[in-house]
Specification:
The chain has 2 domains: 32-150, Chitobiase, domain 2 (2-Layer Sandwich), CATH 3.30.379.10; 157-240, no CATH class. 29% of the residues lie in helices and 27% in strands. It has 6 helices and 13 strands. The protein has helices at 2-21, 57-72, 118-131, 169-181, 206-209, 238-241, and strands at 32-41, 45-49, 75-78, 87-91, 101-107, 110-115, 141-150, 157-161, 186-190, 192-193, 196-197, 213-214, 232-233. Helix 2 (57-72) packs parallel to helix 3 (118-131).
């Protein structure tokens, strides 16, 4: 009888652990994910150590600080020289060779992110954000996990057609944020077509003064039930595109 009860308890425990390990919401799902019992408590103030080499790091660090504050209310600063931060970055060769890759390990020591380029380090940040509960009432903890990831395809892009329907700069930036969140590496911006010219060319101003506008839009699906007669269009200045 004791054997049966013990076996049943082990079965329930296994199911519980399995259930816990399937609650991660990571998009896209990484190449390898190994979740362990336990979690690392996320304080309201954390530090980052071992800044990455290259001119991109200040921009990456600012992005990390801004997003941690905006999404989770966490203040991020750089750790003192020789000290390990709550999040530790390192640049090293990966088993994947020259393919942009990263590993993200969460343990009782904190979060360790290793990558062979700055781009996958940025992708690792997105994975880290997805590991942190977004519910403001939830306890801010990062589950213990070991993740290895790289893009399945070298070109991971998204097309955005602003020629047929013009979107303001604010929406384009929002769209780029969504691409970053899902680790896309290419932005295909469809700026010109029969329906509209959306990029400023200073040498040829008629391209935008005429080509960026139409006198009306078809009502309903083509061939439609008429034209609304409302002038529609727009374009992006060279400065806005930068």
């Amino acid at each position: 009888m004791r054997t049966i009860i013990l076996s049943f308890c082990i079965f329930l425990l296994t199911k519980t652990v399995t259930a816990q390990q399937t609650t991660l919401s990571l998009i896209p799902w990484p190449v390898s994910v190994e979740q362990q019992p336990g979690s690392y408590p996320l304080k309201t103030k954390i530090t980052v150590s071992n800044i990455l080499p290259g001119e991109d790091w200040p921009m990456l660090f600012k992005y990390l600080k801004d997003e941690m504050k905006k999404q989770f209310g966490v203040t991020v600063t750089e750790a003192g020289k020789g000290q390990r931060g709550d999040i530790d970055f390192s640049m090293k060769r990966m088993a994947t060779g020259s393919k942009p890759s990263y590993t993200l390990v969460v343990s009782k020591e904190g979060v360790s992110i290793s990558s062979n380029f700055n781009e996958p380090a940025f992708h690792a940040m997105q994975t880290l954000f997805q590991l942190i509960p977004v519910d403001p009432k939830a306890k801010k903890e990062i589950p213990f996990v070991e993740i290895l990831d790289h893009a399945r395809f070298e070109y991971r892009g998204m097309h955005f057609d602003v020629s047929r329907h013009f979107y303001p700069v604010s929406y384009v930036k929002k769209y780029l944020d969504y691409l970053a969140l899902h680790k896309f590496n290419t932005f295909h911006w469809h700026l010109t077509d029969d329906q509209g010219w959306r990029i400023e060319i200073k040498k040829y101003p008629l391209l935008t003064s005429v080509g960026a506008w139409r006198n009306g839009t078809i009502i309903g699906r083509y061939p439609g039930t008429g034209n609304d007669g409302k002038r529609y269009g727009g374009f992006y200045t060279q400065e806005e595109i930068k």
